[in-house]
Structures are given as C-alpha cells and as structure tokens.
Amino acid sequence: MIAREKEPPFTPGERGASAATVLIADDDSSIRLVLHHRLEAEGYAVEEASDSASALEMLRSGRFDVAILDIIMPGAGGLEILSTAKAEGIPTLVVVVTAASTMSNAVEAMKRGAHDYLTKPFANLDLVAAAVKRAVEIARQAADLDRIREEVSPKLVGGEVIGRSPAMQEVYKLIGRVVTNDATVLISGESGTGKELIARAIHFKSARWRGPFVAVNCSAIPHGLLESELFGHERGSFTGASERRLGKFELAEAGTLFLDEIGDLPLELQPKLLRALQEREFSRVGGTEVLKLGARVIAATNRDLEEAVRERKFREDLYFRLRVIPIRVPALRERREDIPELAEYFVARAVREMGARANAISPQATAVLKAYDWPGNVRELENTVMRAALLAPGTTIRAEDIEPHQAPPVSTQRSTGRDGAELKELIAERIAAWLDKSNEEPRDLYERMIAELERPLIELALKRAGGNQVKAARILGLNRNTLRKKITDHAIVLTRYPGQS
Fold first, then answer.
1. Which CATH number is correct for 12-146, 3.40.50.170, 1.10.260.40, 3.30.70.270, 3.40.50.2300?
2. Which letter does DSSP use for residue 400 in this model?
3. How far is CA 467 from the centre of its chain?
4. Residue 209: DSSP 8-state
5. How far apart are CA 334 and CA 375, in angstroms?
6. How many helices (H) and strands (E) does the chain have?
7. Is residue 73 predicted with pLDDT exceeding 60?
8. Does the domain made of 335-442 have the CATH classification 3.90.180.10?
9. Structural domain boundaries of the chain?
10. Has residue 344 got a pLDDT over 60?
11. Are 129 and 39 in contact (CB under 8 A)?
12. Lowest-confidence region among 76-85, 104-113, 144-153, 224-233
C-alpha cells in the first residue's frame, strides 16, 4: 500500500493572518477532547462550551470563524442557538453535529442556516477536519470580499450618495433592504436627483457587485434601434445586420441592468420586456435561441408612470412588474438641509479634479444656495457650485459668485417676468441683493422667503379658482384644511370674483 502524502492543514497564519478560531459546543466531554486535539493539530485556536447558554454567549463575542454545535445539549440546544445566531447577524459559520441522524434534523439544520451537517459517532476525524477547513476558507473569503467591497465600492460607484435629511434616510433604508435580494426596483424622481447613483449604490452593495453594471438610456436611443440595443440581434436579421451583436441584457450577465428613462420605452417593445422579466429569458432579434436573463433589472423614470398607464402610453402589467420595490428619490428642494453638505462636496471635487482656487464657501453663499428652488436638482447645484469654485476671485465662494440661474434650464418652457427675465432669476437676484445689504447673517432666511412667496401664490390661486377654496387647494396641491390655515396665517382677505355666486 502506497502512503499518500497528507495535504498540509489550512492555517490562516500562512497568509499573514491570525489562526482561525473554532468553537466546539458539546455536552460530551470526550467528544470535545477528541475534536479539540485534532483541530489544534490542524493549526486552529480551539475553545469549548458544554451547554447552550455558554455557547451562545461565546458566539456573541464575534471571535469565532467556525462553530461546531451539537443539536442536543443542556438548555436550548444547537438548532435554537443556530436560529438565534442568524437572527442576531452573528457571522460565524456553523457545522451542526448530532447522533440522531434523521432527515428532519438535517433539513431543519440547513433551513436554519447551518453551513454543514455531520453525524456522530465520527468514523473518521479527517471528515470533521475537512468540513472545518472548508468552513474556515469560506469564512475568510467572505471577510476578504466584504473588506474589498468596502474599499473599492466608492471608486466603482462613480460618485457618492450624500445627504442626512430624513427624506434621504428613508432612501438609505430601502437600499439596505433591496441589496439582500434580487427583486426588480423602480426608481422615480425628477431629472437630476441622482437616480442612477442610487441604482449603482444598490448594485455595488449587493452580492452582484463583481458583475457588470450596464446602463441603457431608453430615451437616448432611436426607437428603431432600441430592441437590438437591449436584446441583441443575429446576423441578417435586418438590413445592415452584418454580424451577430450581443444586447445589453446579455452583456449584463449576472450583474445589474439599469434601464433609465423607462417611461420612454416604445409601446411595441413593452411586451418583450415584460416577457423577459416574467420568464427570465429572451431571444435576440431574428434569433430562435432562448437565452436566460441572469441580471437584476433596475428601472428609473422621471415621468408619472401611473398617469402614463391611465393614458394608455405604458402597459399596466409591465408597470407592476417593474414596480416590485419602488424607491422615490426626493427633489433637492424637499431636502434643503442637505445643500450645505452637497455644496462642500462639490467644492472639494472642483479643487481635486479641476484645480479650483476656491476651497471653501461662505455662509452667505450657502444661504443663497438654500433659498434657490433648484429645478435641475443636484445636477444643477453641482454645475453651479463647481463653476463658482472655478471663477471665484478668492479662496472662498461669496454670495455674489453664486449664479444658479446661469445653469442649463431643465425645460424649454420658461416662466418670465419683466424684461423677459425668468421668475427664478428675479427671485435669486432679490434674495442676493437683500443678503448683500444685510449687516448680519440671517437666521430665518428660508422661512422669511417662503412667507414672501406664499401669500401672492395663494392669492393668485384663489383668483384663478374664482374664490373656490376647494379648486384653489387642488391647483396648489394642498389639503383644503391646510389652505384654510394658510389663508388665516397670512390674513388674506377673501374677495368675491366675477362669476362667483
């Protein structure tokens, strides 16, 4: 018989790390002794527990890579410890052992999150050592991946999601919930709010982070080419198709496919997308081969898809298939408290990436930024602040250096005032002039400006509604009781208008 050279034991110390630590929890002292000696010989640091309570307390310390738990022990037992450990997020991998080797025990152990399952008596301790070795390797790989992901994720995401406002905290909570599953996500919000940034955060914080993040803007691709862009095509499938081309669904592989501006997807393409999402399969244009959809799908829109469904411009069944988990990104005006932090971030970026001279922003300039409505949202704020940082004459951005009205307009429709000036321009100029004349830093600028704008806005809505408060509330998007309170707060005199009974 030829003696086979024994495989050297795995010892994390060989990779420059401390030895893996293993917990043996069993009420049988002889079992603990045998396993202790064998695993120590393999290079592991071993500790013991003789009952459930002490085993759980030791697991909660977080110092074990792997635990060997007997199912039957004084106290709660191994399965109960396993359930509690998983519920509390204890990362230790658990190998369950028992003398009662029934199918129900094995199935129950794996359902509760056991890494492996072994039966007693141990005919061969090599099997136990091999199971522990596999578990330790997986535990260390998982720890390495978590560390690498934390290091590289900010670089891969291509930006940072910034904001500590209550509105953004709700978004963060949703991101935390969706990264643990592969459900389809629909991100909604105005242009410039950072919908793609949210999608990237979901991708790079999920288990798919090593796969590709493939983005498609459904409004930027001609309708005639969009089907091929998404699903690919076979050679000769249409004029000009000289060779096979892989589509974005295929290129996304096991990563994430981000469908931006999904509201602009042509009606004729919507059934094919619906089938791909339902059946998790698709075919290239002109092809018969059925391909599996391995990517997670995240869609985004700045349109009201419910309104589009009512207008029969978007399929209702597709809408609900996309909207498994909805995330609404708030407009910047809904989270003004985040503006100072965002502004500071953009100033630092201007210094770092463009060599801007200005590296700080004055309180007066910040007040101007907070008072502005930002129809272009974070994207407009970024352009405005970075331009100010590059053009400011000193090292600090002043109020007069802020020119938000010069940012690219969000739409071609403009609300103009005297001499053709935009309403937002007039407001910004008045606020800036008022700040320049002020001898001290204002404490209630936001409330003061809102009060100045609110009264004429309500009066105009009432006039437009012929004095009908229900109609005026609808025009303003307010609750009727809220409108009544504001009428009282501003001491607005209710006037009879022509046609009002």
1. 3.40.50.2300
2. G
3. 45
4. T
5. 11
6. 19, 14
7. yes
8. no
9. 12-146, 164-328, 335-442, 444-501
10. yes
11. yes
12. 144-153
Determine how β-strand 291-292 pairs with β-strand 281-282. antiparallel
Q: Which residue has the tokens 């930027």?
A: 220
* Six-digit token string for 339: 């503006």
Alpha-carbon distances, residue 103 vs 67, 98, 108, 111, 356 (angstroms): 22, 12, 8, 12, 68
Confidence of residue 36 (pLDDT cuts 50, 70, 90): very high
Kindly give the pairing relationship between strand 93-98 and strand 66-70. Answer: parallel
Query: Over the stretch 238-266, which tens digit does the pLDDT of each residue have?
Result: 887 888 889 999 999 999 999 999 999 99
- What is the homologous superfamily of the domain 444-501 according to CATH? Homeodomain-like (1.10.10.60)
Mean pLDDT over the full length of the chain: 82
Contact in structure between 258 and 199 (CB atoms under 8 Å): yes
Domain 164-328: assigned CATH number:
3.40.50.300
Given this model, what pLDDT does residue 467 score? Answer: 81
**pLDDT single digits (tens) 184-227:** 999 999 999 999 999 999 998 888 888 999 999 999 888 888 99
What's the pLDDT score for residue 495?
63
From 378, 345, 338, select the one nearest 361 (Cα to Cα).
345
Rounded CA gap, 292 and 84, in Å? 37
Any idea which residue has 């002794």 for tokens? 33
CA count, 13 A, side-chain hemisphere, 39: 29
Task: Tell me whether domains 335-442 and 444-501 share a fold.
Answer: no
Single pTM value for the model: 0.55
Distance between CA atoms of 483 and 470, rounded to whole angstroms? 9
Lowest-pLDDT range of 65-74, 135-144, 202-211, 473-482: 135-144
- Do 235 and 243 form a contact (C-beta atoms < 8 A)? yes
The HSE-up count of residue 25 (CA atoms within 13 Å, CB side) is 31
Nearest CA to 213 out of 221, 223, 202, 222 is that of 202
Question: Mean pLDDT, to the nearest integer, of 4-21?
Answer: 47
Q: How far is Cα 45 from Cα 22, in angstroms, rounded to an integer? A: 6
How large is the average pLDDT for residues 53-59? 90
* CB neighbourhood size of 194 (10 A): 25
Does residue 108 carry a pLDDT above 60? yes
Query: What's the order of all strands across the beta sheet hosting 213-217?
Result: 213-217, 256-260, 296-301, 185-188, 325-328
